[in-house]
Amino acid sequence: MAQDDPRIDPPRVAGDIDQINGFLDYLRGSVVLKAEGLSEEDARRSVLPSPLMTVSGLLAHLRWVEAYWFGTVLDGRPDLAPYTDEDPDAEFRGAVEIPLRQLVDDYTAQCADSRAVAARVGLDTVVPFRGEEVNARWVLLHMIEETGRHAGHLDVIRELLDGTTGE
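Structure tokens predicted for Mini-circle protein (167 residues):
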């Protein structure tokens, strides 16, 4: 990859919120790094058995996951994601119509919004969730898991696309 690495190492000594945010932001940067420099064709090309597992599809999915957990769950906004009960993977499919640069920009903007929500509510804020409750700490930790899992998918996809490997 010819571009600069957008990731910043998480702090090794810090409070909970700084370390949690640091790890999540590092993974968010990894997602962007794996998408940078790809052609539109490669960003949409499936190299794994699932046709949904493309760089474009994963960027769109992660954007909407961020919007759901931070915007809808923690901030009470309507869920505007393109998926439905009839097509729960619509964000993956719809990504083929969106230019890669826009997908990266939309993801980056959504992450900035998510950071703002997390900063505003703090770790211990509890909100209703599917007849139970969830706190912001759980949402942030879940997003580390979700983003890390898909960053791993992106590592494999990128290597299969053009041989690019790295951290």
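DSSP finds six helices and two strands in the chain.
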